[in-house]
Design goal:
The protein has two helices and seven strands, in the order H-E-E-E-E-E-E-E-H. By secondary structure, it is of the alpha+beta class. It folds into two domains: 64 residues; 34 residues. The chain has a three-stranded antiparallel beta sheet, with no helix packed on it. A two-stranded antiparallel sheet has the order 1-3. Strands 2-7 form a two-stranded parallel ribbon. Strand 4 and strand 5 form a beta hairpin. The N and C termini lie far apart (115 Å).
Length: 120
Amino acid sequence: MINHLCRFLSFVCTLVISAPAWSAAPQLESDTDVATAGYYRLEWNANEVKDFILEESQDYYYRVRELNTQSREDGWSEVVHVQVQHHSLTRALLFFVIGAIVFVATLAAIIVGNRQASNN
C-alpha cells in the first residue's frame, strides 16, 4: 500500500514539475482613454515572447495575447477601450479661419515684397 502511494505521489510530482509553465496574460494599456489628437498608443508587457495577436473591434476595443504553442485560449489580456473623438465643428472652423488668415498674410507679404523689388 505504501509502495503504491509513493509511486502515485512520485507520478503527481513528475506531472507538476514537467507541466508547461503557462505565462500570465499580457497587461494591455493605452496612453489615453479619449483620443482627440488623431493617434493613440497601445502598449503591453513583452516578457520573452515576441509574437502577439492584437485584436481590434470596430468600436475601438482591444485585447492581446501571446502567440505561441503554450498559450491557452483564455490567455487574453483585459479589454481596453479607447474612445476616438473628433474636434468640434467650432474648433475645426477656427483652425480653418486661422489658416486662411496666415495664407492671406503670406500671400500679401510675397506680393508686396515682389513689387518693392521690382521698383528698385
